[in-house]
């Protein structure tokens, strides 16, 4: 009886399996990345290796100084008189990201950009821009005007990378420096942004910016495929390899090298495509995360960002909780710079192959600001030398006066 029941059950399962209409299964549209929902996880643990080439890029490691300088410069330039008293900014150091406690001390660090003079009342210190800084400010404004379409396109792509095609204002402001957005774009979006941008209300009472467009965007990696082959078949199983740039002296274990070859052959899911069907523990999803940061850093001015500043993007770009592991597992794609006591993520491709990257129009202006910053060191050095020579002259004069008094005291008085 038991054997007969078992046979009956087996026969029933076979009948159920045969009763499924196979043509219906074949007609269902399955996303390309559902074919590779496997996780061949390899524990990639590599020691961090210092690379002086990436640590010496001035536009990256000087950005901590340049950012507050640009903010203070804009504050002065917005005034009709072109100058401000120190009281206008002395208590706004956190707003301008000034790295020192006193704003006046920071302004005096850069005499090549900020010129100090005594104000009309109460002998308070006032500051205005030097002629060189004024010329650079005008050049910066002309870049915003001439490359307005390019800058708007970068903002549009940044928003389209989010799951719901919208981002809160606070997130966009946090990325303003990296995207190279002028202040007026965020202060008055209705008059500065085109019709594809919409101001919307988000969850928790937050206001944000959304993008409405039917145009399909290609990522930088997809555009490079088009450049090489002349076409890109969307939805095909052909993999898109991420360019690798190994640092000198960095060797990979054989199992890691084999896994990396396997990883390069996986299907590529663009940051602008739907990824809801992806298994979060699959290798394809990890490649999608690497592709998101490749595209994101490619949109930034200097193709880098402080790692801690990227945490605010996690819930909006569909990133895992420990997304920063992607930087450690893929050292041929990203470099982690520990200069200036902070961790900065750098996209290696941007500094190894100019042909594949789209140069941000604001990069050249920032390089000129950095060169102007360096002139401050020369000015301060001359001032110190002048003060030392003045003090030395005073000491010699005091010694001569003292000697004259001593000589007069030694002259005998005649009777």
TrEMBL record:
One Gene Ontology MF term: RNA binding
PANTHER family referenced in this protein's UniProt entry, alphabetically: PROTEIN WHAT'S THIS FACTOR 1 HOMOLOG, CHLOROPLASTIC, PROTEIN WHAT'S THIS FACTOR 9, MITOCHONDRIAL
Record-linked InterPro entries: PORR_domain (IPR021099), PORR_fam (IPR045040)
PORR domain segment(s): 49-376
Protein's UniProt name: PORR domain-containing protein
One Pfam family matching this protein: PORR
């Amino acid at each position: 009886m038991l054997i007969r029941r078992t046979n009956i059950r087996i026969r029933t399962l076979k009948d159920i399996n045969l009763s499924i209409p196979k043509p219906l299964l074949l007609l269902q549209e399955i996303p390309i990345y559902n074919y590779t929902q496997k996780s061949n996880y390899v524990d990639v643990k590599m020691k961090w290796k210092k690379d002086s080439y990436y640590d010496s890029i001035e536009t990256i490691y000087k950005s901590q100084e340049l950012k507050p300088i640009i903010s203070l410069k804009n504050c002065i330039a917005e005034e009709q008189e072109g100058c401000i008293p120190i009281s206008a900014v002395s208590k706004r150091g956190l707003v301008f990201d000034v790295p020192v406690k006193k704003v006046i001390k920071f302004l005096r660090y850069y005499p090549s950009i900020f010129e100090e003079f005594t104000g009309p009342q109460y002998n308070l210190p006032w500051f205005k821009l030097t002629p060189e800084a004024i010329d650079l400010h005008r050049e910066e404004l002309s870049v915003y005007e001439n490359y307005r379409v390019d800058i708007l396109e970068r903002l549009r792509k940044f928003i389209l990378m989010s799951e719901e095609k919208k981002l809160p204002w606070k997130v966009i402001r946090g990325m303003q420096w990296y995207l190279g957005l002028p202040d007026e774009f965020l202060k008055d979006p209705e008059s500065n942004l085109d019709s594809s941008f919409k101001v919307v209300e988000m969850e928790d009472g937050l206001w944000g910016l959304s993008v409405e467009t039917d145009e399909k965007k290609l990522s930088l990696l997809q555009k490079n495929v088009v450049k090489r082959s002349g076409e890109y078949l969307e939805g095909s199983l052909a993999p898109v390899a991420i360019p690798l740039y190994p640092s000198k002296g960095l060797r990979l274990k054989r199992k890691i090298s084999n896994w990396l070859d396997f990883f390069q052959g996986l299907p590529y899911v663009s940051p602008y495509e739907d990824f809801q069907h992806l298994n979060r523990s699959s290798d394809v999803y990890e490649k999608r995360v690497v592709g998101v940061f490749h595209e994101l850093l490619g949109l930034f001015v200097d193709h880098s960002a402080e790692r801690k500043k990227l945490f605010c993007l996690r819930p909006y770009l569909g990133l895992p909780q420990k997304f920063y592991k992607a930087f450690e597992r893929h050292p041929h794609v990203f470099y982690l710079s520990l200069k200036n006591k902070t961790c900065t993520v750098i996209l290696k491709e941007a500094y190894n192959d100019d042909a594949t990257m789209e140069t941000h129009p604001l990069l050249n202006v920032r390089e000129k600001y950095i060169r102007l910053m360096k002139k401050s060191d020369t000015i301060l050095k001359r001032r110190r030398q002048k003060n030392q020579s003045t003090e030395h002259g005073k000491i010699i004069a005091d010694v001569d006066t003292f000697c004259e008094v001593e000589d007069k005291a030694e002259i005998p008085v005649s009777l």
